[in-house]
Model the fold of this input.
Amino acid sequence: MRARISFFVGIILAGGAFVSPAVSEDAQSSSLIYSPWIKLCLGSDICFVDKEARTAPDCVPRFGATLIERTGEAKKTLRVTVPASVDQARGVRVGIDQEQPIERPYGSCYANLCSADIDGGLQLIARLKQGRTLVFDAVGPNGTLHFERGLADFAAAYDGPPQEPKAFKSQIEKEQDEGKVWCDAN
Done:
């Protein structure tokens, strides 16, 4: 849990906003563990609604999506992240369900992830709440990489209260005991 919060804070400080990991350059060769959509806030200034996939058992971030909201701002940012092995000169294509995808350049690349942002407002939130699947495609060393994030529980996470760190840690530990949760990257 501490590593996840540290990851959020580190990326915010490094890039000015949150970078979350996105599916499957090597989904066939590695097991992926998926987090649920979760809402976390840093004070009262900024909140993230995040869902990610990590490799098992080493918990390396593979891909993800994060909605970023700053208090008092109409603009919302959807940040998708993909493995850094993508062709960084080309952008990522992002769409919801069967919508025509839009292409965005990578804003940042780190050791294991590259991110691209889609800016929007209330329409973006409505599309995410009503959608079934967030889809993004990138070009990797062996061709197109296809990533998908289910949106079924996005609305509940977005509309619900942010997770309290202690409650979040307790939930993660319970789900780990039950064999249900992604992983804590400690």
